[in-house]
Amino acid sequence: MSFSRDSTLRVHFKHTHETAQAIKGMHIQNATKYLKDVTLKKQHVPFHHYNGGVGRCSPAKQSGWTQGRWPKNSAEFLLHRLKNTESNAPQMHRRTYRAHGRINPYVSSPCHIEMILTEKEQIIPKPEEEVAQKKKSLKRS
């Protein structure tokens, strides 16, 4: 079992949520190939939950859904998480310098990712049991 977590990422939360749901339950090699195809716009990510304003696309018919996108940035971040590489999150404390000496915070909403990889369970064949003869009960009359 492998565990990976990253926080304060500069990616869209909703795009990352939909991309993570698309690779949930996939084998790691299939998920890696899928995310690489998303960055190259060969496969799409179906948007099930956060789909307000998301346009319809014809490749979405493959997944049985009408709405989809190709979130390149989210796919790249999830690809880095899959490879278990640690990326340094950029500083979130930025400032905007305004007129007349004022300074305002440059606020951005962070995105936290947590990914758990587990090994696939091996199927063990059931041993063949010997057919036991039924014992007859002897009743005394």
Write the layout of secondary structure elements.
Blueprint: E1 2-9, H1 13-23, H2 28-39, E2 45-46, E3 68-69, H3 72-82, E4 94-97, E5 103-106, E6 111-117
Task: Give structural notes.
One of its GO terms (molecular function) is structural constituent of ribosome. InterPro entries: Ribosomal_uL22, Ribosomal_uL22_euk/arc, Ribosomal_uL22_sf. This is Large ribosomal subunit protein uL22. Belongs to the universal ribosomal protein uL22 family. One of its GO terms (cellular component) is cytosolic large ribosomal subunit. This protein has 141 residues and is of the alpha+beta class. The chain has a single domain (2-117), classed as Ribosomal Protein L22, Chain A (Alpha-Beta Complex), CATH 3.90.470. 24% of the residues lie in helices and 19% in strands. The chain contains 3 helices and 6 strands. It has helices at 13-23, 28-39, 72-82, and strands spanning 2-9, 45-46, 68-69, 94-97, 103-106, 111-117. The strands form 3 sheets. It has a two-stranded antiparallel ribbon. The protein has a two-stranded antiparallel ribbon with strand order 2-3. Helix 2 packs antiparallel against helix 3. It starts with a strand and ends in a 24-residue tail after the last strand.
